[in-house]
Write a structure and sequence with these properties.
The chain has 14 helices and three strands. The chain is mainly alpha-helical. It has four domains: 70 residues, no CATH class; 74 residues, Ribosomal Protein L30, Chain: A, CATH 3.30.1390; 95 residues, no CATH class; 32 residues. It has a three-stranded antiparallel beta sheet.
């Protein structure tokens, strides 16, 4: 039990205390540990966590397939997609290019092959081949081949036409085969993963709209504020919002105040008096100011939504971040003091 409980707790307490108080000291060694070493340790541990997470994903999906649980067919696609991406990223280079060092004695034949392989016209291919001889530098073809068989086939055609060529495999180091344009992994990412991600986020838009419909139903004062703020933000951020006159918004505001007065007092005279006085004041102010579309500014939707976004929204976000910070600090103290032991299975 000593090695399974006390030692892990002591390590967490020591490293946690050192990292925490490293932000409050100027001692160079401690600052270097906090800024560099601790960050690198985190990256190493996160890498192992990702590896274990991938294995756990495969384990769970395999169990679902073996036990024929509900929706096991989707697990087949999940495992196939994982293996496909793993193969494309780690086991398959998927990126070969060809350099033409010389057109030899038959540049017309070489130009014909280049035209067939690259889609250029024969005239443009001949011009490019001429530049090789003039500048004494190889021509790197833009086309990227996914397999060695494909690139060897093209290189053989060029050699048969009389050209001197060299096959250039994109190096593994630095993940160049992943970022190379039109490589196999690059194609998979931008042609499969990116469209699927866009589709998922498009579906999330409908889920957000559904959740907004449920949340915006007027049940109490807070829900009413949420509804009003949501409508103002949505209208203020679309082009039609800038076309709505601030005076129209003021008339709507008068009607809302009238409804509130009627709900509160339930007096016809007071209700109609509020409505009549409000409409009269807005109309007089409009005639006196010339009915400008963006004046008064507090009723103009684009400016009103800017104020809501920059003042109440940011204030609420800061309050949430302060709460998160206090929560992280409290959890860290619990780990350092050994109160929280979930990481050792307790």
């Amino acid at each position: 039990m000593f090695w399974k409980r006390q030692i892990p707790i002591a390590i967490v307490a020591l490293i946690g205390t050192l990292t925490l108080f490293g932000w409050f000291t100027d001692q160079p060694d401690i600052k270097s540990f906090v800024d560099d070493d601790a960050t690198q340790w985190y990256d190493i541990l996160a890498s192992f966590a990702i590896f274990l997470g991938a294995l756990n994903l495969l384990k769970m999906q395999m169990q679902k397939i073996i036990k024929r649980k509900s929706g096991w067919q989707y697990s087949v696609f999940a495992i196939a997609g994982f293996l496909f991406a793993f193969t494309a990223g780690f086991l398959m280079r998927g990126a070969y290019t060809v350099n033409v060092n010389s057109a030899g004695g038959t540049p017309q034949l070489v130009a014909q092959v280049l035209a067939d392989e690259t889609g250029r016209t024969i005239q443009k291919s001949e011009i490019v081949l001429g530049l090789i001889e003039e500048e004494n530098s190889p021509l790197s073809l833009d086309k990227v081949h996914w397999t060695g068989r494909s690139v060897n086939k093209m290189a053989s055609k060029l050699k048969e036409s009389g050209a001197s060529v060299e096959i250039i495999p994109v190096p593994w180091t630095g993940g160049a085969h992943l970022t190379k344009k039109d490589s196999f992994f690059n194609w998979m990412f931008f042609k499969i993963f990116t469209p699927l991600s866009a589709t998922m986020f498009a579906l999330l838009a409908f889920l957000v709209a559904s959740a907004a419909y449920r949340a915006f139903r007027i049940r109490n004062f807070e829900a009413t504020l949420l509804l009003a703020s949501g409508i103002i933000i949505m209208l203020g951020r679309v082009p039609i919002g800038s076309k709505i006159s601030s005076w129209f918004v003021l008339y709507i505001l008068v009607l809302l105040v009238t409804i509130m007065v009627n709900t509160w007092k339930k007096n016809r005279i007071l209700t109609f008096g509020t409505l009549g006085i409000g409409l009269l004041l807005v109309t007089i102010a409009g005639f006196s100011m010339g009915w400008p579309i963006d004046k008064p500014a507090f009723a103009y939707l684009p400016k009103l939504q800017d104020w809501i976004y920059l003042v109440p929204n940011i204030a609420g976000a800061r309050a949430i971040m302060i709460g998160i910070g206090l929560g992280v600090f409290a959890t860290s103290i619990r780990y350092i003091l050994g109160i929280e032991r979930s990481y050792i299975g307790e």
